[in-house]
Amino acid sequence: MAAVAYETLQLHVTPEKFYIEPCDDRVDDVLAIDRVSTEVTLTVKKDVPPSAVTRTIFGILGTIRLVAGSYLIVITKKKKIGEFFNHVIWKATDFDILSYKKTVLHLTDIQLQDNKTFLSMINHVLSMDGFYFSTTYDLTHTLQRLSNTSPEFQEMSLLERADQRFVWNGHLLRELSAQPEVHRFALPVLFGFITMHSCSINGKYFDWILISRRSCFRAGVRYYVRGIDSEGHAANFVETEQIVHYNGSKASFVQTRGSMPFFWSQRPNLKYKPKPQINQVANQMDGFQRHFDSQIITYGKQVIINLVNQKGSEKPLEQTFAKMVTSLGNGNIRYIAFDFHKECSKMRWDRLQILLDQVADLQDEFGYFLVDANGKVVTNQEGIFRSNCMDCLDRTNVIQSLLARRSLQAQLQRIGVLHVGQRIEEQAEFEKIYKNAWADNANACAKQYAGTGALKTDFTRTGKRTQWGLVLDGWNSLVRYYKNNFSDGFRQDSIDLFLGNYAVDEIDHSNPLHIQKDWKFLALPIIMVVAFSMCIICLLMAGDTWTETLAYVLFWGVASIGTFLIIIYNGKDFVDAPKLVQKEKID
Q1: SS (H, E, C) 82-119
Q2: Is 502:581 a contact under the CB 8 Å cutoff?
Q3: pLDDT at 587
């Protein structure tokens, strides 16, 4: 019973305190937060003043300190995703941010503006789709990890036992974490993707679940967070677990994705594909070994599937990865390079079978986790596939969906859902559910990291590449380009603030928000406006040969100067770069 959080709460607000009361007649405890001292204590229901303003909430996300003081963040709306193992899974869909301070009159105009900016950053993260929680089930662990625990672990609160890699409000809950007696008020929240479906094959009903857990370590956006940090945490690291539940038996297959785990960067510079840079100074092997040591401890043997191009700007990254695996000489790590774009060029997506055949024996060796209806562990997953491309999004998701289908085929046959000789691909209704779920997973992961839906989802949804899919990929690529260059600095700052990578100092009034933009950053929009104006003039004066000629000369002159500036400064001075965390901390 210890590993349960309160499901529904009443928030009572007075000028002096926040009172959070469980909607449970059997419980008399009330969490009290002093709005002046910020002290957190337990009291009882009779201590709540009748004059308090009351509303229903569904969880405490945590607290954060900004320029104006502390803020309480609560979940105000939720959506039921489904149930499995008699546990309800929820998605948090709306939040509220409540100030401890009753007024902001103590702030200067600059402080007010800074506080408004920081609040907009927190709201930006909260507006991102993909926050999930359960008040009775530990979403942060795989079935296999949960099966291999001690009685002491089972008695821990959800907050204590959670895998900290996947608790996105861990920093916000730090004050509640320090007081075990209030842990039932603390709700660990996962960020990623969860879908659950009740399915039927051969008249046999089973639950099929897909969970992607995004790591909060080295979290961020596409071009500003690549490679690893000094602790070996990889950028865009996501653990994806596919679960089947039938007649009490439970099976799962786990895969991971993550940026190539050495020190490299790919800063936006207005080019469509910035050239990746490998850090030649850092101790590459130290971080690389740290990464795989932790991966082997957590998951067992590793099969790396590197899907990047083996020519052009991606080639040095592939070569570096291969060389480091060889240098490490760890028998638990196997490296496989598969040039996805080359092999599948000209719409030859059937060639993905080459990779599946190559890893088939390894997948059979690793197996999957299976526990029978009596709770007895039948098999464990002995290793894992760690897939990556450049972004660990589009190409990676395609491969993961194919590996997961192959594992699911074996699982459904083993537990008696599929007959001998039957194929998942032949089950039209389930195949549609399966493909759409994996495509939705791709979109969720892509939006969280790159700012748009995934590419190549037409193949994931239909099993073939289409012309319309290519058009959609082109549009998403265009939107990615804009966001990556002109809005991702703010997105990165928002995530760093939310996760505690940057802490606001109420006393120190200077902060990175006050850094003035370089004149070159302001030059590009001015050039674009002038160039556009000259284009309009050309159209208006088209009938006058002399003025038309002059206008064209002026237009092309300004455009040429703009292009020249971009080339000289390599575009890096025009992009929206993060301000809160220093460059060396995220390179």
Answers
A1: EEECCEEEEEEEEEEEEECCCCCCCCCHHHHHHHHHHH
A2: yes
A3: 43
Nearest CA to 269 out of 278, 261, 277 is that of: 277
Provide the pairing of β-strand 69-84 with 87-99.
antiparallel
- Give the distance from CA 158 to its chain's centroid: 21
Q: Which residue, among 534, 576, 532, 573, has the nearest Cα to 551 in the 3D structure? A: 534
- Supply angle C-alpha 536, 541, 544, rounded to 5: 155
Angle at 202 between CA 198 and CA 204, to 5 degrees: 45
Helix (H, G, I), strand (E, B) or coil at 153: helix
Q: What is the mean pLDDT of residues 391-399?
A: 94
Q: For 568, how many CA atoms within 13 A lie in the half-sphere containing its CB?
A: 8
Q: Are 258 and 236 in contact (CB under 8 A)?
A: yes
Contacts of 1 (CB under 8 A, 6+ apart): none
> In the chain, what is the straight-line distance between the N-terminal and C-terminal CA atoms, in Å?
44
Averaged pLDDT for residues 221-249: 96
**Pairing state between β 204-214 and 377-379:** unpaired
**Alpha-helix runs per DSSP H in 127-181:** 143-147, 151-155, 158-161, 174-177
- Identify whether the C-beta of residue 293 lies closer than 8 Å to the C-beta of residue 283: no
Residues 252, 241 contacting (CB under 8 angstroms)? yes
CA distance 416 to 429: 18
Q: Which helix (H) or strand (E) holds 73?
A: strand 69-84
Number of alpha helices (DSSP H) and beta strands (DSSP E) in the chain: 17, 20
Between strands 369-371 and 377-379, the pairing is antiparallel
Residues 6+ apart with CB under 8 A from 276: 226, 264, 265, 266, 313, 314, 316, 317, 390
pTM of the model: 0.89
Give 476-532 as a 3 state SS string. HHHHHHHHHHHCHHHHHHHHHHHHCCCCCCCCCCCCHHHCCCCHHHHHHHHHHHHHH
pLDDT digits (tens, 9 = 90+) for 342-389: 999 988 989 999 999 999 999 999 999 999 999 999 999 999 999 999
187/135 Cα distance (integer angstroms):
7
For residue range 469-492, what is the model confidence (pLDDT) as tens digits? Answer: 777 777 777 877 887 888 889 999
Q: Are 85 and 245 a contacting pair, CB within 8 Å? A: yes
Sign of CA dihedral 121, 122, 128, 130: positive
Cα–Cα distance for residue pair 501/233, rounded to 1 Å: 14
